[in-house]
Amino acid sequence: MPQLTAIVTGASEGLGKSFAIELARRNYNLVLISLPGSGLPQLASYLRKNFNIRVDEIETDLTNAESYPGIFNHLGLKSITAHMLINNAGLGNWSWFEDKGTAFYKKQIELNVITPVLLTRLFLEQANTDTTSYILNVGSLGGLFVVPKKQVYGATKSFIRYFTKCLQLELSGSKVRISLLSPGGINTKPELLVMNNRLKGLSKATIMEAEDVARIAIDGLLKGKKEIIPGLMNRFLVVLNGLLPAFAKEAIIRSRLKLILKS
Amino acid sequence: MSYKNLWYGHRGTHYGYCISCMTKILITGATGFIGRELSLALANKGYRVMALCRNTAHPYLIKHKNIEPVTGDILYPDTLKQAIKGCTQVYHTAALAKMWSRNPDAFYDANVTGTRNVLAAAADAGVQKIVYTSTCGVWGPTLNFPLTEDEPRIVGFPIAYERTKYLAELEVQQFVACGLDVVTVNPSRVFGEGPVTDSNTVGKMVSGYLRGKWRIIPGDGGQISNYAYLHDVVAGHLAAMDKGISGNRYILGGEDISFNQFFDTLGKASGIKHGMLRVPQKAIKFYSRVEWLKTRLTGLPPFFLPEFADRLNFNQKYSSQKAADQLGYRITPFDQAMQKTVDYLKQA
Question: What does the domain layout of chain A look like in residue ranges?
Answer without folding.
Answer: 5-262
